Amino acid sequence: MNHYVIPAHLVGLEAGTSGSGGEMGGFYLWGLIAEFADIVVGSVMILLLVFSLICWVIIIYKGIYLRLAQSESNKFLETFWEAKRLDAIYQTSEELKRSPLAQVFKAGYQELSKQKGQEAQEGEAMHEHLGDIESVERALRRASQSEVTALESMVPFLATTGSTAPFIGLFGTVLGIVGAFHNIGEQEAAGFDVVAPGLADALFATAVGLLAAIPAVIAYNFFVRRVRVLASEMDAFSADFLNIVQRHFLR
Questions:
Q1: pLDDT tens digits, residue range 33-84?
Q2: pLDDT at position 154, please?
């Protein structure tokens, strides 16, 4: 009788296929997840670093912009209350392009000029009857809304980064821990030297997320407060300007 010897690797293959196919499929699936986790963690790191860089650019730009806006608005208010002619104030407002108050005044002055006609544009004395003050009020309101929109530009990105960056970092951490445990299972060892590097890399994603989120949240709250202050100043100035127009130009 002839005896055939089955190679050992074929025996292992058959045994693995028949007895533990689910286990082998599970290891294969976790291997794919581990490889995917490494790619995702790296992508998360890059994404968070890009977010952080954009936030710092916005912080620096908006900090300078709002500081100039407040400084030029203070100069405009000094000119407005010291000057005796609207055309002189208008010339000053042309130079203070970063001042929201100056832009609001320009909108109101131009509406008055439309009602008066060509004489107001040339700096002549205002006529006593300039029409409906509601048109001036609408012009001031539109200008205020436009300036608030300009002041708030790019600031919402800081809020978005502050609210999402920690969760993006946590997502990278979770996948990194999955990959670390898979590597532990492959090496069949759970020593500190095996566990620590993978967990450290995974937790670093959360740290990067917090590093991007914390400055963004602080800057967002600071800028929102500054914008609210400037918006309040525009509202107060609009009310004062309307009172002056009613008192001196509309009767």
A1: 556 666 777 888 889 999 999 999 999 999 999 999 999 999 999 988 888 7
A2: 94
End-to-end CA distance of the chain: 127
User: Are the C-beta atoms of residues 154 and 219 closer than 8 Å to each other?
Assistant: no
State the pLDDT at residue 124. 47
For 150-206, what is each residue's pLDDT tens digit?
999 999 999 999 999 999 999 888 887 877 777 666 666 566 666 666 677 778 888
The closest alpha carbon to 51, from 244, 217, 183, belongs to 217
132 phi-psi bin (left φ>0, alpha ψ -120 to 50, beta other): beta
d(CA 236, CA 249): 20
CA angle, 44 then 58 then 212, to 5°: 30
Quote the pLDDT of residue 20: 47
Tokens of 182: 């898979």
Measure the CA–CA gap between 164 and 146, rounded to whole angstroms.
28
112 vs 231: CA distance, rounded Å: 23
Rounded Cα–Cα distance for residues 249 and 251 (Å): 7
**Dist. CA 168–CA 31, nearest whole Å:** 23
pTM: 0.74
Do you know the residue count of the chain?
251
- The angle at the Cα of 14, spanning 8 to 19, to the nearest 5 degrees, equals 125
